[in-house]
Amino acid sequence: MTKRRVLVLNGVNLGRLGQRQPEVYGATTHAQLAEHLVETGAGLGLAVDVRQTDHEGEFVGWLHEAAAADIPVVLNPGAWSHYSYAIADAVVQVPFAVEVHISNVHRREPWRHTMVISPYVTGTILGLGLGGYDLALAHIASAVPA
Ligand code: DQA
After folding, report:
1. One Pfam family of this protein, by short name (predicted)?
2. 49 is an annotated ligand-binding site residue
């Protein structure tokens, strides 16, 4: 049986996980996170493709790909979450999207409280560290029909 494809899309600055503010985002690198999510996904019967970019247009292109092929998405748009209407307009086209934030943005600076993409996703997980990505994959495996 072919595995259900899932895209995990990490946006701006998330390629620096492990080096960037480890007190907020932890010590795990993006490469380690990606390897872990591919393994976790395989255990759940999912073929997980983890990508990261600092370029908004590339991120939008990946959302178009998910929309066209009906692929569920886990996304952490990083700071774009707070102001990118372009990503909001793209994510609304994706049939199933879970937004993940490593930190609880509502306990941080006021500018992080504005979430312009959240109204267009299926659900949001925030403040649970990198474990939020695992929860999102587990939810997709159990809730999204193949
Ligand atoms: C983040 C929270 C954002 O405010 C921040 O700009 C990020 C990471 C998180 O995962 O907690 O880059 O999305």
Report:
1. DHquinase_II
2. no
Tell me the two tokens of residue 128. Answer: 């649970």
Range of the domain at 133: 4-142
Digit-coded pLDDT (tens) for 38-97: 999 999 999 999 999 999 999 999 999 999 999 999 999 999 999 999 999 999 999 999
| Domains held by the chain: number | 1
Is 76 among the annotated ligand-binding positions? Answer: yes
Q: How far is CA 113 from the centre of its chain?
A: 18
Q: Is 80 exceeded by the pLDDT of residue 1?
A: no
Q: State whether the beta carbon of 76 lies less than 6 angstroms from ligand 1.
A: yes
DSSP state of 83: T
Ligand 1: residue of 23, 74, 75, 102 to mutate (most ligand atoms within 8 A of CB) is 102
Q: Assign 36 a pLDDT band (cuts: 50, 70, 90).
A: very high
pTM of the prediction? Answer: 0.97
E strand segments, the chain: 4-10, 46-52, 73-76, 97-101, 123-126
Q: How far is CA 52 from CA 45, 114, 144, 146, in A?
A: 22, 22, 23, 25
